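Handoff note, outgoing to incoming analyst
You'll be picking up this chain. Sequence as last confirmed:
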Amino acid sequence: MKASVPAWLTSTWEANWHSFQYFLFARFLFGALCLLGLVFPGQWNVQLALPPSPTLFTLFILFLLLSGGGLLLARLWQKHFNFQLSLQVVVDIVLINSLMVLAGGVESGFGLILLVSLAAASLVGQGRWVLFYAALATFSVLIMQSQAIVAQGADSGSIVQAGFISAAYFATAILARLLGQRIMANEELARRRGIELADQIHINQRVVERMQDGVLILGHDGRIVRHNPMAARLLGLPEAATHLESCAPPLAAALQNWLAGYSSDSVYISGAGNAELGARFMPTGSSSGEVLVFVEDVERIKEQAKQLKLAALGRLTASIAHEIRNPLSAIGHAAELLHEERRGETFDRLLRIIGDNTLRLNRIVTDVLELGRQKQARVEGISLRPFLVRLAEDAQSVGQWPPDVVRLDVPPSLLLCFDRAHLHQVLWNLIANAVRHSSGKPGAVQVRAAASEASGRVDIAVCDDGPGVSEQMRDQIFEPFFTTHSLGTGLGLFIARELCVANGATLVLRNLAPGMAPGAQFVISGRCDTCL
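Most recent structure output, in case you need it:
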């Protein structure tokens, strides 16, 4: 279906009071000039056959009063638009017809002045009112000229001239109406486009503000035109930052190298806190030649890639673990049956190798399946000292830790918000690793806990006096399936850290204080103020 076009005559729009006020002001100015010309008469009075007279003074004074009153009314009382406009048009028609009567009829040319008034009224008028104004002007001119022919003996052929002027009135009204309709339609279209543009700008601003990448608009001289909050956080920009050189020298140097053609569009720089960042430069194509810069947190990208890799690896290993468990059980059962035959020492040694590796594979399968079955943490307030004392007693009772090798330094009233089963698994893994890598002497492994009132968190440090973790292994120590123990699965520390994250805590490897013996220190930092 074709889109319907508004009828040029019946369509209306909102009253345009501003244009109406301009129209009234122009009429008032016209009346003031005419009155001034009567006060200081000149050659124009003679040419128009309008010598100064009391009637003419009275006519222009009344016109000024009505025009000024209409202008004041249109500014203070913006109601009944059509009535106010029609009243002023009638005043114009009366004035022009009176001037034509005084000047000798349509031959004076005053009828053409009414074209301007009709055109202005048709531009701001509504609906069929424009034809009413033209018809009213036509009727008044024809009546005036007919009376002049009958009463004053004017030339009868002048009625034809009055008819031409009347036709011009209708033509002017119609053309002005069509022009006004187009102007109003364009104004409405511009208004809607302005609203859509403002909405789009607002949406773009919200999107840019919430982007996980930093966005900057820079000048060629390094001047900061605009940036989002993430860019300020990654680069450490102050609130009043205006120039890149003073607040982010690495990015400023990279920008100048890119502008000079010495580097590619993507470079790596250091940001706030020596964080590794990636910057991409892109020309905006603006007249001022501004540059658009995207700043990415490389560590966050690496972490996302790592999480995707671990998720895929977890699904794969979980599927494989399910398939391995059944044949693994069969191998273990067969080894137990062969062990009952007792065929000799060599045979027993081979069976022990089978049994040990079967147990190791079974631990790997159990850890992988447990990793995939992690449930939501049920956080509660745990009193740390009784919990750790009971954990140490349980481990010593089953022979996991030698007596007195673990020393506890935990305040009696310290609380930690954590899932009890998760905390048992994490601490058991950390302390078991510390005991295995320690010297085995009394106090070789220390478990210390302390609370920070300012941050509302509690730190649990598990330290040992062993050889420690080398710099090459620090970046891999929490990776899945990374282990330095021949019987380890490489999932213990990875699962421990994931459990800490599930409880709103962190697990990190820290350096020991200077002056202490070499060793490792794993620190759990969790909440101690609120347990949700």
